[in-house]
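Per-residue structure
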Amino acid sequence: MNDVLTVSHLTKRYGRVHALRDLTLTVGRGQIYGFLGPNGAGKTTAIRAMLGLTRPNSGTVRLFGEPLHRAALARVGALVEAPSAYPHLTGRENLEVTRRLRGADARELPEVLALVGLTDAADRPVRGYSLGMRGRLSIAAALLGRPEFLLLDEPTNGLDPQGIREVRDLIRALPERGLTVMLSSHLLAEIEQVATHVGIVADGTTRFEGTLADLRAQAHPELRVTTDQPSEAAVHLAQLGHAARVDGADVVLPDPRVSADVNEALVRAGHRVSRLAATTHTLEELFLNLVRAPEARAC
């Protein structure tokens, strides 16, 4: 079975409010899956449902091809919402508390400390840790029990740039040890630097799922023409058979290859053309377009 997580048509309501609406996604073995969406999109509710912490109104969650049950969940490590540690205890002592609660083998402590790069700081009180070190300690706790699937909810939230880099580098290395990772974020730039696959969610429903290359493939090039009378120019081009629309001072056409013909047609008609440029949407523009309400999305 190559799918570690399969979420099918998940719906969760709180009174009249829909936190999740028919959410569907799949995480394959060995992936770093970025679960991306704006704040309030339903990411944390979805993650809680994936871990059996909240019961959906409808839909199913399957882990390793099996229904959600204790044996399947034992193969999952998770970091949900704001992690905390006892500041007066050392890093090792904090992990020992988690190890006992999970019933993990004591021999795992030095393993996870080494994996997250905290061996040298293991016996220092956590109050003296940097934000990045605390983030790595939280991931170390999630790794106890030797999980096959790691589910991280906003693991870089609140970290400084150095801490974000430390956690990012750690996450990148986890698939080399046989782990599959799913991490949520509202920051496209963060997901773009670490994920192999991405699922974009907004208003509790999946808007996109695939690789980053799949997402970039949706960035169709356009021709933007800046002219003194864009509305009149768009009408003229439409009469000549071009699919033209107005965007501010520009006329936008879907095919940059017609630039010479468009320029000639507009000049012959008396329009002053100051710029022609082939443009492609950035990933940020694609993301923002996907998470807009359907009626507000760009064509």
